Amino acid sequence: MGVAKVPGNSFGQAFKITTFGESHGKGIGVIIDGCPPRIPLLNKDFVWEMARRRPGRGPFDTPRMETDQVEILSGVFEGLTTGTPIALYIHNRDAQSKPYEILRELFRPGHADYTYFKKYGHFDFRGGGRSSARETAARVAAGVVARLVLEPLKITIMAYTLEMGGIRAVRIDPEAINRNPFYCPDTDMVDRMREMILKAKKEGDSIGGIVEVRINGCPAGLGEPVFDKLSADLAKAVMSVGAVKGIEIGAGFEAARLKGSQNNDPIIPAGFKTNLAGGILGGISNGDDIVLRVAIKPIPSIMKEQETIDRAGRPARLKLQGRFDTSAVPRIVPVLEAMVAIVLADHYLRSKYGQLIKQLNG
Amino acid sequence: MGVAKVPGNSFGQAFKITTFGESHGKGIGVIIDGCPPRIPLLNKDFVWEMARRRPGRGPFDTPRMETDQVEILSGVFEGLTTGTPIALYIHNRDAQSKPYEILRELFRPGHADYTYFKKYGHFDFRGGGRSSARETAARVAAGVVARLVLEPLKITIMAYTLEMGGIRAVRIDPEAINRNPFYCPDTDMVDRMREMILKAKKEGDSIGGIVEVRINGCPAGLGEPVFDKLSADLAKAVMSVGAVKGIEIGAGFEAARLKGSQNNDPIIPAGFKTNLAGGILGGISNGDDIVLRVAIKPIPSIMKEQETIDRAGRPARLKLQGRFDTSAVPRIVPVLEAMVAIVLADHYLRSKYGQLIKQLNG
Amino acid sequence: MGVAKVPGNSFGQAFKITTFGESHGKGIGVIIDGCPPRIPLLNKDFVWEMARRRPGRGPFDTPRMETDQVEILSGVFEGLTTGTPIALYIHNRDAQSKPYEILRELFRPGHADYTYFKKYGHFDFRGGGRSSARETAARVAAGVVARLVLEPLKITIMAYTLEMGGIRAVRIDPEAINRNPFYCPDTDMVDRMREMILKAKKEGDSIGGIVEVRINGCPAGLGEPVFDKLSADLAKAVMSVGAVKGIEIGAGFEAARLKGSQNNDPIIPAGFKTNLAGGILGGISNGDDIVLRVAIKPIPSIMKEQETIDRAGRPARLKLQGRFDTSAVPRIVPVLEAMVAIVLADHYLRSKYGQLIKQLNG
Amino acid sequence: MGVAKVPGNSFGQAFKITTFGESHGKGIGVIIDGCPPRIPLLNKDFVWEMARRRPGRGPFDTPRMETDQVEILSGVFEGLTTGTPIALYIHNRDAQSKPYEILRELFRPGHADYTYFKKYGHFDFRGGGRSSARETAARVAAGVVARLVLEPLKITIMAYTLEMGGIRAVRIDPEAINRNPFYCPDTDMVDRMREMILKAKKEGDSIGGIVEVRINGCPAGLGEPVFDKLSADLAKAVMSVGAVKGIEIGAGFEAARLKGSQNNDPIIPAGFKTNLAGGILGGISNGDDIVLRVAIKPIPSIMKEQETIDRAGRPARLKLQGRFDTSAVPRIVPVLEAMVAIVLADHYLRSKYGQLIKQLNG
User: Fold this and answer.
1) Cβ distance D264 to C112 under 8 Å?
2) Which residue on chain D is closest to A7 by alpha carbon?
3) Are the beta carbons of D25 and D128 closer than 8 angstroms?
4) Which whole-number Å values give the CA distances from C63 to A222, B322, C54, C60, in the listed order?
5) Chain B residues in contact with C283 (beta carbon < 8 A)
6) Beta carbons within 8 Å of C33's beta carbon, 6+ residues apart
7) C259/D205 touch (CB, cutoff 8 Å), yes or no
8) How far apart are CA C8 and CA A313, in angstroms?
9) Inter-chain contact D5–B82, Cβ cutoff 8 Å?
10) Is the pLDDT of residue D120 over 80?
11) Interface probe with B: pick from D84, D91, D125, D224, most Cβ of B within 10 Å
12) What is the DSSP letter of C235?
């Protein structure tokens, strides 16, 4: 049985979050240490983002119902942050551990059961425990605060489903995103995405996709040489979300096939002529839109029978029952937005713009 | 002018490295804090890896000549590590700052000049200073020590040029990799890669590519929930290397188009039937090969005339002169290997395998 | 108005605690990240230590009544720690903010009001907010878990009131400590301490004292060169408790007047002949009893009229009303024990004894 | 044999130092990460402070001769810091390992030999290796840079020998300090200190003392709640220096015997009427002089025969030969000044004054 010597439940240096809680425990939460004082913050500020992440938005999501109300336990006085740690807590209300009883002995393929067992000698068969996507509710709550920290910069962080089950959005219409349950930015593709997801659901299968995140209005200068590059921290933040298998910035993997003369964005007095860099040069934001794409694998919980083994290593057949999403994609959209906001808030407080916040909020 | 409040020149928690030095300063180096005691370490242990990264290996690399001898300043006594910080230092010998004089006023497109200027109010016109690829020599030196730390695990870390300038290796022959200047694992593609690079050089242009890293023999259990997942730290480590624009693990972006039934690697008593996960589940190594691919942009230093601006924001034309690689790809191969080794050594020391090292090295 | 760039609400590297909450907010709590898995932990484990710190134990303590029940929000499943973050929460029930209204404008001498105002541009007039001694309840709760982590080592951590109001214990009788409200180890001095405190209370004044902490059974080898010496971390932990103004280890300030031949503890096969070092050599535990003494200032909340200024800097007279302890000493005893336990647990997990825990708890 | 899981060779969060090197290795050094850009820094800036710490200043110091020239390896360009890591290196020139050969098997009482052996299974018999006071040369070099960071604040940090061998300075005359080899601030006591030290030397013995540090001009507002109090970080910094056995701030241990009405410094429009707090309230600087006293034990290397054991645990007699100081006190004075400067620079960069530096150095 192993013991982690340096725990890994915190993220960030200046805007530092520590999440806690398990899928089927009492609840989940997050401590934010480093939020500047005097920022207005109320319980209701969390409602919109929590609703976006919440299960049960459509026929394709898990029917698990969570109101996901965020309770502020500390750090706020008379509606303003005080500069002390902000503790946010979300009760688990609808956890049904029963269907998981069958899993006490079997590892679910594609899940963390096997690796947790190898690492810790046990695993939380009740929905994955700490490795459950439920943990991301705490991240979304922290993301709400991160966005408030960023407010003086007038940044827009917009994530959307660029592709799901192979169906790719052609047009990016910001207005469209929140008008469909898939956060698809292309109204013409919504029906095709729906078909694709219904088909997979019917087959007892699941689908993946690609989420694109676009940050507008980020000033030049965020990011620290040499290891804490903005790109490096974005990559870590995004990869720390379950189901993510890849990230690219700007032209990304396509850049590998371009020539320097094609890929170097020419600089003009107004900024950059093109944005193949995706808004980051040398690990530091360049003032242009930051653009990144994230690969999401198909959700591993499927209804089809699967080959697996039990704790003793004996072969077994597994047919899952329970309440699962058919794709992680839509619900991961607000989570990725939150993680990006957290990285930006952290770097914003780490860099020279820290002075701005004082003038504006002071 | 900004001031970074939390500096970013360190990486790792248990095997912690801090690099220092600039491209055209006296030299570069690294402090390794956390290396276990009693590991044999001599100056000559660095020769092979430093040679692999060193410029001047072929007609396509910068003719800048560096012997890149690593000097051990501390942490080793009678040929054994002592458990105290290991300081490694590499003198800069052949830095020619002169050709850069012309750049005192102009930002090189695709480089960090613009963003450093925006962040700090100045930039090191002599080859990028701290943002130069020269800094990676220190990482390669640290990687050598990381590999020694990992030795008890009998891990093999193998990186190679999967693709360069659009030419893709078809076969992966480990024997081939070090037999050609491109670290191409497919002998049949070496000539085509050479052609491609010569063509680009002739045109005064540059090319990018994709590096694949494959880790064999990594035990299950490395990686910490929830933010310090092995995948998350690999992503950060890799993205912190200049010129990297994307990373994917296992099926990566391809997984976005698969169904759960296709992407879930079935578990059998012997391990996993397939390895679309790329050796990592829930952020923790699963005992299978860890596989990742890294997108490298074309080197931004090209001989073609480019559009840019000067420090005052006025439009300008820039035609670079100097000694540049035509592609970053080959020389980045040992750097990525080093970064991967550093991440693994860090997680190895953080997790239960720490006890192994004691038994084996104690 | 300032913004802290690197927040300071966490302590520890391997056993890492982050406290949150304010004196007159909803409650206070702590997240423990890094606690090993499979340690039995129940709500009732906190009762004894929380009771020792709780106000209202005698006529000399603040009559504020807090049940101080610790609620485990996460990290425990079926009565065992899981290795995930343990969130502990204590509701504030009896906070009376009203008497503090008068303090909205005046700085209390000897308190943090003035410095918080200078730093943040505001201060929490309701009992000090975050700077209140109430925050230490979270530390005591974390200390309970730290002690469980240390259990395999069979360490005894014993703190007691060596001196209060100038009355000094002569004999150290471990049995006596918990039999009187002052944690005085010398039964003969209990009445004199009581007289002293009643006299001060009657005068509307307060008194300070010295707490001694004695750790028995700590193995040699805890502490890290060169900055994270065990002595250095103990000093920081102890000094981070409000009202502490000094710490000495072993002979402490007395050692300054000894000669080397007097102060060097001779080494014999059985260990050390004397223990003037206080159990720590070169920052590392030497296997002998660790002994430290902590100076506690008189509590600054007194009923006598005091000279002060208001927020605008105008002179004022202040006569406090409210519920205050007459001395911080007795209630600080369990807090110092907790902090010492936290430091030891942290270093225990950082050092070679980490392997022991696995064998014993695995 | 143990393995430290989280290395302890770094100090600071925003102004972060990592030292390396051993007493009898090639040299010692320090990396400073987080120093703001554009601060003038030359090799000669180190001369004065290095000379103050250097051995061989008087007949009472070790005759080991070190020129202790500080070489700047990185982070400075054209005489200005660049904001990148500053690497400082000091060659060891006069290390004589020979006299230590006899110590290969015996633990020196009062030294770290015994505890290093217990922790690591080996110890550096050549003068203590990493635990040697020689490591403090790197701290003094870092302190020079810290002072430059603090320059905009016009802070004065003054340390002096308040007491040595029982002889206590009565008057504090800043002019006197650097005019005698003991850094004694009271000219009348210099001869008596000299006598005391000569007497001890003759007896083959050693003496300790008390160093007082006084910081003038520190603005209110430095220090972070709740663990990273300015007082807590000062305590850790000071205790991390070998030979230190105690620290007190302001009235310190004396405060334990005062009443609240005596110890509460009344606040007046001009500041504070008295300064028993020693310039720190609630862990945050209050604008008054910061005053701390540090207890230094007698140097453990004495010429008298001592009782000890060998590695196998067998009793032995030890009579040291070599070059030792008779008291650590004078040479520790600049080291403590340096550590205090480092803590202040760190908190200065962490807190609101960060904006000042930009305006002044920008």
Assistant:
1) no
2) D6
3) no
4) 51, 78, 10, 9
5) none
6) A7, A9, A10, A18, C16, C17, C18, C85
7) yes
8) 46
9) no
10) no
11) D84
12) H
Residue of C nearest to B355 (CA): C355
Name the residue type at position A297. Answer: K
Cβ–Cβ gap B82/D124 under 8 Å: yes
Q: What is the pTM of this model?
A: 0.94
- CB of C359 less than 8 A from some CB of D: no
pLDDT in tens, A294-312: 999 999 999 999 999 999 9
Quick: pLDDT tens for B132-174. 889 999 999 999 999 999 998 899 999 999 999 999 999 999 9
Residues 204-233 of C with CB under 8 A from D: 205-210, 220-221, 223-229, 231-233
Q: Is D81 on the interface with B (CB under 8 A)?
A: no
Option in A21, A31, A83 nearest C120 (CB): A83
The ipTM assigned to this model is 0.94
More confident residue, B202 or B1: B202
pLDDT at position A148 is 96
Q: Which residues pair with D308 in a beta bridge?
A: D316
To the nearest whole Å, the CA of A226 is away from the closest chain D CA by 9
Selection from D46, D53, D95, D39 nearest residue D70 by Cα? D46
> Residue D288 has which token pair?
């008054």
Q: How does pLDDT run across C79-137, given as a tens digit for each residue?
A: 999 889 999 999 988 655 565 666 778 999 999 999 988 887 766 655 567 888 899 99
Residue type (1 letter), A299: I
Mutate to test the interface with D, among C17, C212, C236 (most CBs of D within 10 A): C236
User: C85 to chain A, minimum CA–CA distance in Å?
Assistant: 5
Give residue B83's pLDDT: 86
Please determine, for residue A48, whether its predicted confidence score (pLDDT) is greater than 70: yes
DSSP state of C144: H
Of A3, A31, A122, the CB nearest to C358: A3
Inter-residue contact A116 to C83 (CB < 8 Å): no
Is residue C13 within 8 A of residue C342, CB to CB? The reply is no
Measured between CB atoms, which of D6, D352, D354 is closest to A5? D6
Does residue B132 belong to the interface with chain D, where contact is any CB pair within 8 Å? no
The kind and range of the H/E element at C163 are strand C156-164
Condensed to tens digits (0 to 9), the pLDDT of residues C2-33 reads: 445 678 999 999 999 999 998 888 999 999 99
Which of A200, A237, A266 lies at the smallest CB-CB distance from B109? Answer: A266
Q: Which residues of C touch B358 (CB under 8 A)?
A: 352, 355
Contact yes or no for D343/D150 (Cβ under 8 A) = no
Residue A168, strand partner residues: A163
Chain A residue numbers with beta carbons less than 8 Å from the beta carbon of D6 are 5-6
Q: How far apart are CA C146 and CA C338, in angstroms?
A: 8
How many Cβ atoms are within 10 Å of B84's Cβ, its own excluded?
29
User: What is the number of alpha carbons within 13 Å of residue D310 lying toward its C-beta?
Assistant: 9
Contact B349 D19 (CB under 8 A): no
The two structure tokens encoding residue D57: 């200043």
Three-class SS of residue D202?
helix
Phi, psi (deg, nearest 5) at residue D75? 90, 0
Which residues 6+ apart lie within 8 Å of D316 measured at CB? D105, D106, D307, D308, D309, D310
Q: What does the DSSP 8-state code read for residue D227? A: S
Summarize pLDDT for D5-57 with one digit per residue, the tens: 678 999 999 999 999 998 888 999 999 999 988 899 999 999 999 999 886 55
* Interface contact flag, C265 D313, Cβ < 8 Å: no
DSSP 8-class letter at D40: B
Please, how many CA atoms are within 13 Å of residue B261, restricted to the half-sphere of its CB?
Answer: 13
D349 touching chain C per CB within 8 A: yes
Closest-CA residue to D276 (of C307, C112, C211, C297): C297
